[in-house]
Specification:
Elements lengths: L2 H14 L6 H32 L5 H48 L5 H19 L3 H12 L5 H22 L3 H19 L2 H16 L7 H11 L1 H5 L4 H7 L1 H5 L5 H10 L2
Helix pairs in contact: 2-3, 2-9, 3-8, 3-11, 4-5, 4-6, 5-6, 5-7, 6-7
């Protein structure tokens, strides 16, 4: 980030930190701004490459070497950028995840032990029955069971087991599997939504976002393609793996980028 961007971003972080759930929005903002910063690196590379190509100070071989060195320079610059931004992103996503889970836990009413035992027995019975019937019957059993769920804690428990619970239905559904999947998830979403306060729903969305992005790609496919097109194979290969890049090329982690004029002289002298 440049100085002004950094000040604006830090001000927004300070404003929102009082609410841990807003850290998810900060992480999303950071991800978007990093894509913009990549564009700045790309545009800078294209501008300098054009300057090299029209220069009358170098022969073709010298221009090629300058362009290759420029690619390496910008690749290192990009990896330093991605590593620092990804580190910030992970901090905010982790904070969003913890804040969301804490909020949900605080808002989830305690269940009377006897009621919890009864629910677990019902869930076990329904799970067994679904295994022994066809897709249509299983869907009806699950629909009837979900209508009896009247505690948020029970909905959270079902959520953790839902995929394994509906798998027999999906396996028996054949070509209608996608339709059954949508209908089954729709039934569960209705129950979950009815049982929670709006703030709890937002917290659950934040946790789902955080868990989905925590180990995901930082840059979308288009940036990967553009990095390969302009900066070369290594830039694309390591676009979302800066730590691995510096592990494989440790000298580049320690290397201080030369000022532009010195870097040109260094390359030209090696022609």
């Amino acid at each position: 980030m440049n100085e002004n961007q950094s000040k604006l971003f830090n001000a927004e972080v300070a404003r929102r930190k009082s609410n841990p759930l807003s850290l998810e929005r900060i992480a999303g903002c950071l991800s978007e701004s990093t894509t913009g910063l990549y564009r700045i690196i790309q545009d800078s590379f294209r501008e300098k490459r054009q300057t090299i190509q029209v220069s009358k100070d170098y022969f073709a071989r010298g221009k090629q070497k300058l362009t290759e060195s420029l690619q390496r320079r910008k690749t290192i610059e990009l990896k330093h950028l991605v590593r620092s931004q990804r580190s910030l992103f992970d901090q905010y996503v982790s904070g969003a995840n913890k804040g969301g889970e804490s909020f949900i836990h605080a808002k989830t009413p305690k269940v009377v032990p006897v009621k919890g035992e009864h629910f677990n027995k019902q869930l076990q019975e329904v799970t067994t029955e679904i295994l022994l019937c066809n897709a249509k019957q299983g869907k009806q059993l699950l629909s009837t069971f979900l209508k009896t769920v009247d505690e948020h804690a029970f909905a959270a428990q079902i959520k953790n087991e839902f995929l394994s619970l509906i798998q027999p239905n999906l396996s028996d559904a054949g070509s209608d599997m996608d339709i059954y999947r949508q209908e089954l998830f729709g039934m569960f979403e209705e129950v979950k939504t009815c049982l929670m306060e709006p703030e709890t729903g937002e917290a659950m969305s934040v946790v789902e976002y955080a868990q989905a992005t925590m180990h995901g790609k930082f840059f979308v496919g288009l940036v990967e393609e553009k990095a390969g097109e302009h900066l070369g194979k290594l830039a694309r290969m390591y676009i979302n793996k800066p730590e691995q890049y510096f592990a494989d090329f440790p000298d580049n982690d320690k290397k201080l980028l030369l000022p532009e004029n010195k870097y040109k002289m260094e390359v030209a002298n090696n022609e």
